[in-house]
Amino acid sequence: HRSAFFPPVRIVIKEVDYIKTREDDETANLIWNDSAVQHEKIAELRNYQRINHFPGMGEICRKDCLARNMSKMIKCQPQEYSFIPKTWIFPAEYTQFQNYVKELRRKRKQKTFIVKPANGAMGHGISLIRNCEKLPAQEHFIVQEYLDKPFLMEGYKFDLRIYILVTSCDPLRIFLYNDGLVRMGTEKYHAPSEANLSQLYMHLTNYSVNKHNENFERDETVDKGSKRSISWFTEFLRTNDYDVAKFWGDVSELVVKTIIVAEPHVLHAYRMCRPGQPPGSDSVCFEVLGFDIILDRKLKPWLLEINRAPSFGTDQKIDYDVKKGVLLNALKLLNIRYSSDKKRNLAQQKAEAQRRLYGHGSMKKLSAASSDWEKQRHTLERRREELKERLAQVRKQISRDEHEKQHLGNYRRIYPPDDKLLLEKYESLLSAAFQTFLAGRAASLQKEMNNPLKRMKEEDILDLLEQCELDDEKLMGKSSRQRGPKVGDSEKEVGRIRKLNFDSESVFLPPPFPLCFPAGRMHWKPPIKSLKPSPAPSASPTLSGPIRRSISCPRSIASLSSPNEVRALSTRPSPTVPIATPLVRPSSATLRSHSLSRSGSAHRVPHSNSLGTIHSNIGDPLINLRSKEQEAELVRQTLAVLTAMRIRFPGKTEEEAEAVLDEILDNWKYHKSKVASYWLVKLDSTKQRKVLDIVRTNVRSALQRIWREPDVESLHLYRLFNRVFNRLLWSHGQGLWNCFLNTGSSWETIFSKSSEVVSPQELQCCRRLVQLCRDCLLVVYKFVSESRGSLTGLSPEWDDTR
């Protein structure tokens, strides 16, 4: 295809040992098109092939589609999508535009507008206007407010060409190239006026326009000429004391938020093209996008447009250097492996054909006459198959992550980001995008994206598989093996800690029922940091990398609350709690402490200090290693804080909230069926998770303060808490409900098969966590039953997406 004749493309093909084939060769590993690809072409691709366009990406690459989709996102997320100028699509929005102009005239304001063809390119057909009455009502174009106060360099207006690589839409993965092009106007900039509106060399920064001006400078030095590199511009900002980190952070957010707008369209179209492809499979599509961004005088980036086929022409040496790097690093990151991929594809096709021929697994189909026992076994088998499939996907993603880290080159990954708070925000925006663009459509896709398994890591899935075994033993009438935390000598390291680094599963919400401490003050001791980190031993190839959640679409409940939205926690010195005794509130009934003391305190469990075996993400700061004594002291402080925590009932004092809990437990026979109906039937999995997120969010905040760790996911104790939360949500909340009963598997079995060692204090922390979750459910149940809403709703605050 045409771009294959550009010098960077030819040279990169040779460097990566590719061979250019005929355009009609249907077995090629890499197919490069300069224009959008037909959906049929993508559907016909074999799994080992790669093509350089995604279906549906035109939703942000056509000017009119970008304006239309951005307008919808601005309505639901105005604060997050304030990086695109006001835009009107003609002729559909002609009336709205004229009304806006009349309002400006009434306020005696004059603005300049830029008119662009809806699907134009290279600056063709662009003009500036101030007299808006002359605009034809029936022409197809877009009108934008002109940014008349741009950031200038040497008196010239300029824009930035940022190169973005999208390697997958399922899950979504975005990479930003650390270099690009600065494209300058060729006449000194002056604010627009009637006299200079036609001077496009001043107002437009398109290279295709300015290269025809006699003032265009083709200088090969890095700091001169009408075209320069972004690496030079970054150094220019640093030299002039601008905040470079904030600048690149703003650019990265602009890019990710824009692609989030496209993701529902792209993923839906991709699934339509590849209907039989299992989730998490290698993507047959990738895309190199050219983002055109302009900066205002405050250095805020504004999106101009997106090119899905950026030019790889090289009129100057700077073009060659930048564009060759974009292509070469992209192809290395894609990991195309020729013959091995072809062989693997044939083997997968054969296995898939056998699976379709003989049926999925060995599960039998249920008949109408099937007994309850057979139905339970069938449900269990389906659950087990689902977990195994998800486990394989997670392990495959680990392998991909390792390859990416080793072959980033001059790219850096901007989605999913390493910053957990930023990830939560992006997931919330993804949720809003899916609800906006796929509302009423693609219901099965949205349901799949909200599957709790999507948020689980390898350790969590292994725990659930173990629970399947336990449930299977019960159904088959076998005696359960003795389970419980490992018992051992506290002076020895028992077993190996799994070499995994867990990402957070927590969701920050503005909780309507925050935890609170009794009045008073608690003093925090900063942990003493070890001077020498112990070396991390090697791990198996498939599990050596950090485990990340596969994120292609959002959880519908994800929302990020700012610090002032989460109510502050007040503290007082906690009472001394004997470690060997069950942790119960003095006023609680025996029922409430039953499941918390099931394993008793007789288990003497050593705590391993082998934190050095946990792998941190590349680029993340190393985990601060602490001595065994320091960790034990921090765990003790955590236990004291958890013990002091109480669930706050909205509109009631702490004593009244305690009385509400006592009333429920004193009349448990009356409330039992109602609580069961509310928790197990009326709440779906999303709302169940929201209930436990009240506890999770506040516990997380407490851990950050006690351990002085902003990234609590690296803490051994927090990972234990995450496993407990997952177990409580097991089987649509049955895990938590079992804690109210005298029967049912205890949540403590999650530590039985794991070689991870749990200390007695950590176990007590987990027990207290479970008790807080129980109390939280009861308070939410009581609050909802007393409100005028139905039991299926939580309260208006639950749908607040701030």
TrEMBL record:
Region described as Disordered: spans on this chain: 529-548
Coiled coil regions in record: 363-404
GO biological process: microtubule cytoskeleton organization
PANTHER family, alphabetized: TUBULIN POLYGLUTAMYLASE, TUBULIN POLYGLUTAMYLASE TTLL7
Protein name: Tubulin tyrosine ligase-like family, member 7
GO CC, any one term: ciliary basal body
InterPro entries (UniProt xref): TTL/TTLL_fam
Family, similarity comment: Belongs to the tubulin--tyrosine ligase family.
Record's keyword terms, sorted: ATP-binding, Coiled coil, Ligase, Microtubule, Nucleotide-binding
Organism: Sander lucioperca
Low complexity biased stretches: 529-546
Gene Ontology molecular function terms on file: ATP binding; tubulin binding; tubulin-glutamic acid ligase activity
